[in-house]
């Protein structure tokens, strides 16, 4: 296997390279231009110029023949954005990726593009709350119907499919906050047999831990705000899949207008370079903390797909390289005692979001689910003593010591 010093990695090299290498080098293309810069240039330009009218004419001819190799206007594309998209596609093993200014922008734009009045969508019951809300509250106004099926009930999923009407099955794996894991091969098989496309929100896993496209899933989505960017400093979202389908999303993005700023795209590329080492550390700390908490008397229950006690542990072990950085648990006691425990921790910040280098903690009853009554929260599976912890990249021993001191004084 040879490649020239300035060439592109060979196909064989690309398929054997690990996620850590791909996160640094993308698809292996070496770039010398512009200015021989190693770092990705931030092309902070709203528009792109033409040399003369002949240049315009040849660009337009190329564009309408099916694609030009340059940019025209910032809402349709930008070279910095395109470079990050190529890296994200390589990481998840997809043909192409489309980047959006947030995870929800990716979800809403993709669904508005793929669905039309009369269409039917199936979603898992443990899906990201706002994706759920977008389907049931928003798409309904445009004549799209949604059926919610219990996570992991493949019989109910098949029964919910309406021939010729169901267009999409939307799932998440692992889910928020309970880390439920969907059997990706099984989901893909159902989709292919029933001619329904499958869409998996893989935010909690990252391509280091799991690649849904390898199992036959059609679309992978990430809130890149979380682990992919990894530094709690930007919002972005991405969809990855087959080239023709991504071309359709790219076109609708130009119409809907949700494109990422080149500065944010640069920061995402910068964050991605350390993805491999960050996820390794987060996997390790989260598993150690989950085991520690499971054995602690002040803790009622722990949900982490890496624990043998988790309902989906066997599936997770079979299809994941690591189990991710989010640990969810209930404290033995009421809402106030749970808050007291959180307030005694010294390392994690109290904040929504997850996946960054800083550990974050939140009590959903006080934050993400504050607007609900205690009864509604319980019906959604969010008791008052529930805690969601997102592991950062601090030393595992320091995190364990911090939890030990906070629980000892409870
Ligand atoms: C955060 C999150 C989203 C939404 O992403 P934003 O970047 O906040 O818009 C979607 N799915 C999951 C699983 C998330 O954690």
Q: What's a concise summary of this model?
A:
The chain has 410 residues and is an alpha/beta fold.
Nearest-integer average pLDDT: 94
Q: How big a fraction of the residues is strand?
A: 5-15%
Under the CATH scheme, the architecture of the largest domain is 3-Layer(aba) Sandwich
Predict the CATH topology of the largest domain: Aspartate Aminotransferase, domain 2
Bound molecules: pyridoxal-5'-phosphate
Account of the protein in words:
- With 410 residues, the protein is of the alpha/beta class.
- The chain folds into 2 domains: 11-272, Type I PLP-dependent aspartate aminotransferase-like (Major domain) (Aspartate Aminotransferase, domain 2, 3-Layer(aba) Sandwich); 277-407, Aspartate Aminotransferase, domain 1, CATH 3.90.1150.
- The chain has helices spanning 11-16, 19-25, 53-64, 79-92, 103-114, 129-138, 154-160, 184-194, 206-209, 243-256, 262-272, 275-294, 313-319, 335-344, 374-379, 396-408; strands at residues 96-100, 120-124, 145-149, 166-172, 197-201, 219-223, 237-241, 299-303, 326-331, 349-350, 360-362, 386-390.
- Helix 6 links the parallel strand 2 and strand 3 (145-149).
- Helix 2 (19-25) runs antiparallel to helix 4.
- It starts with 10 loop residues before the first helix and ends with a helix.
- Mean pLDDT is 94; it is low at 1-5.
- Pyridoxal-5'-phosphate (PLP) is lined by residues 102-104, 128, 172, 176, 201, 203-204, 223, 225-226, 235, 237.
């Amino acid at each position: 296997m040879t490649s020239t010093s300035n060439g592109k990695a060979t196909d064989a090299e690309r398929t054997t390279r690990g996620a850590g290498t791909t996160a640094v080098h993308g698809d292996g293309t070496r770039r010398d231009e512009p200015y021989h810069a190693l770092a990705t240039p931030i092309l902070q330009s709203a528009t792109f110029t033409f040399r003369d009218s002949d240049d315009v004419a040849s660009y337009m001819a190329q564009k309408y023949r099916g694609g030009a190799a340059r940019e025209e206007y910032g809402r349709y594309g930008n070279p910095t954005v395109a470079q990050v998209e190529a890296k994200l596609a390589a990481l998840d093993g997809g043909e192409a990726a489309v980047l959006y200014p947030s995870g929800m922008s990716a979800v809403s734009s993709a669904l508005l593009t793929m669905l039309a009045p009369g269409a039917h969508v199936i979603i898992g019951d443990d899906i990201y709350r706002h994706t759920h809300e977008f389907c049931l509250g928003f798409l309904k106004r445009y004549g799209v119907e949604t059926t919610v099926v219990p996570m992991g009930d493949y019989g109910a999923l098949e029964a919910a499919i309406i021939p010729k009407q169901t267009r999409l099955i939307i799932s998440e794996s692992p889910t928020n906050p309970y880390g439920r894991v969907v059997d990706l091969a099984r989901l893909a098989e159902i989709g292919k047999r029933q001619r329904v496309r499958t869409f998996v929100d893989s935010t909690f896993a990252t391509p280091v831990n799991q690649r849904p496209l390898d199992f036959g899933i059609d679309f992978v989505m990430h809130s890149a705000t979380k682990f992919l960017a990894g530094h709690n400093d930007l919002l972005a979202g991405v969809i990855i899949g087959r080239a023709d389908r991504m071309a359709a999303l790219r076109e609708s993005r130009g119409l809907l207008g949700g494109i990422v700023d080149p500065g944010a795209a640069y920061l995402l590329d910068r964050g991605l370079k350390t993805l491999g080492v960050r996820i390794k550390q987060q996997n390790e700390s989260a598993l150690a903390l989950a085991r520690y908490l499971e054995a602690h008397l002040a803790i009622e229950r722990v949900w982490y797909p890496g624990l043998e006690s988790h309902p989906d542990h066997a599936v997770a072990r079979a299809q994941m390289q690591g189990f991710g950085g989010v640990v969810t648990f209930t404290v033995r006691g009421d809402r106030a005692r749970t808050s007291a425990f959180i307030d005694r921790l010294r390392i994690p910040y109290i904040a929504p979001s997850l996946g960054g280098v800083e550990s974050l903690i939140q009590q959903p009853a006080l934050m993400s689910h504050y607007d609900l009554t205690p009864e509604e929260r319980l019906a959604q599976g969010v008791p008052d003593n529930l805690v969601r912890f997102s592991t950062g990249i601090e030393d595992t021993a320091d995190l364990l010591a911090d939890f030990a001191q906070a629980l000892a004084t409870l």
